Amino acid sequence: MSLADLLPSMRSMVQSRLEENVWPGGTTVDERGELLVGGHRVTELAGRFGTPLQIVDLADVRRRCRAYRAALPGAEVAYASKAFLCRAVARLVDAEGLSLDVCSAGELAVARSVGFPGWRVLLHGNAKTPEDLKAALAHRVGRIVVDSLDEVDHVAALARDRQRVLVRVTPGVDGGTHAAVTTGVEDQKFGFPLSTGAAAAAVRHVLRQPSLRLVGLHTHLGSQLRRVADFELAARRLVALLAAVRDEHGLELPELNLGGGHAVPQLPGEDDFDLAGFAHRVRAAVHDECARHRLRPPRLTVEPGRALVASAGVTVYRVVAVKHAVRTFVAVDGGMSDNPRPALYGARYLVRMVGRPPAAPLRTATVVGRHCEAGDVIARDVPLPADVRAGDVLAVPGTGAYHHSLASNYNLVGRPPVVGVDNGAVQLLVRRETEEDLLRRDVG
Ligand SMILES: Cc1ncc(COP(=O)(O)O)c(C=O)c1O
């Protein structure tokens, strides 16, 4: 038993135990407060690559890809690349045999640049531009998930060789998540509502296009979803539509894509998504509903994004200033330009001071960014050592998804680099954006 176990006041100072579930697997912390991610000291990485810095533990991503494939044998697992895409991740996902969900010609360009096979790419989006569609067709993507009747016409006009498509359906299932990422309810911009008959009409419209081949249905209920029952309900409703398509058109569609949205723990004490329960219960629901309708069970696709990369990411900041006002503000050298999620969705984070042992007990502080908005908050009311000061290094876990991909140049701040750690190896994956990069676009 250590001294910290015997003296509660001491324990609150040392902060040496790592919170469960929120850090990349294998992350450790020592008594001096040094945090090691993928075998590398975070403070050393901060010194070498500068701050703010985004670290992604590729071994952790690989482990999660394997867990998904093992939990869902026979199903297609497509990584939703909007969560975070760079060439190294595209290569990893390819090597692990996953498919790739892209939403733009830009995401597709990254996939193409590493030779990601087109037939394992799905193109999504509610307003795909002609450039997106042309790039997708040129790369012969496996499937395009159509989202409007206009788009069906556009794809049909451009396509050759009977392009495979899925129809995106909004099944009227509310996943109980933040409104900004709720996409299974019918009153929103994505997909064709089921209950109004719009989805069935979209199927009819696709089937009239000789250049398209309808292969299935798609739905995506939202993000940070925890209730497996919502996926079961959506699956049952979509199977009923598959049966209706069979009855009306004599066509059994072979694919059912249930999207992503599987939640990740963001704070200590939060559970992982029940992947085993999902795999078992959703498959049982599909089989049961198919049996009821005398349908052959379709091949399932799932599209996790966050669940594969969020917990593999750690963002590292340096404290610029500490202000004891009405509350204690700890201001860092990044902010909403590298993490807009607190402002967008009220996302909550854990923050840990790393690199030196604290000399004072924990006290509540609010970690804020450097940007010109009062809402530029990274973590409100989190415990930090009372002696936290300018120059200290802070690490924020759970920042692998929708951070780099949502980053901006607000205040003309360059986006941070991404460094990959992988079983002892370390590699710069995306370099820091420089002033030169920013000025190069400004051609006026
Ligand atoms: C169509 C589609 N599939 C999958 C995902 C991935 O969601 P998540 O990262 O929450 O798993 C998204 C996210 O917006 C999506 O729009």
UniProtKB/TrEMBL annotation:
Its cofactor is pyridoxal 5'-phosphate. Residues 58-310 form the Orn/DAP/Arg decarboxylase 2 N-terminal domain. It holds the Pfam family Orn_Arg_deC_N. The active site is at C372 (proton donor). GO terms for molecular function: diaminopimelate decarboxylase activity; pyridoxal phosphate binding. Its EC number is 4.1.1.20. It catalyses: meso-2,6-diaminopimelate + H(+) = L-lysine + CO2. Pathway: Amino-acid biosynthesis; L-lysine biosynthesis via DAP pathway; L-lysine from DL-2,6-diaminopimelate: step 1/1. Pyridoxal 5'-phosphate binds at G261, E303, P304, G305, R306, Y402. Keywords: Amino-acid biosynthesis, Decarboxylase, Lyase, Lysine biosynthesis, Pyridoxal phosphate. The keyword Secreted does not apply. InterPro entries: Ala_racemase/Decarboxylase_C, DAP_deCOOHase_LysA, De-COase2_N, De-COase2_pyr-phos_BS, Orn/DAP/Arg_de-COase, PLP-binding_barrel. The keyword Oxidoreductase does not apply. It comes from the Bacteria. One of its GO terms (biological process) is lysine biosynthetic process via diaminopimelate. Substrate binds at R306, R341, Y345, E373, Y402. The modification N6-(pyridoxal phosphate)lysine is found at K82. Coiled coil: none annotated. Belongs to the Orn/Lys/Arg decarboxylase class-II family. LysA subfamily. HAMAP family: LysA. Homodimer. Specifically catalyzes the decarboxylation of meso-diaminopimelate (meso-DAP) to L-lysine. This is Diaminopimelate decarboxylase. The lineage of its organism: Bacteria, Bacillati, Actinomycetota, Actinomycetes, Pseudonocardiales. The gene is lysA.
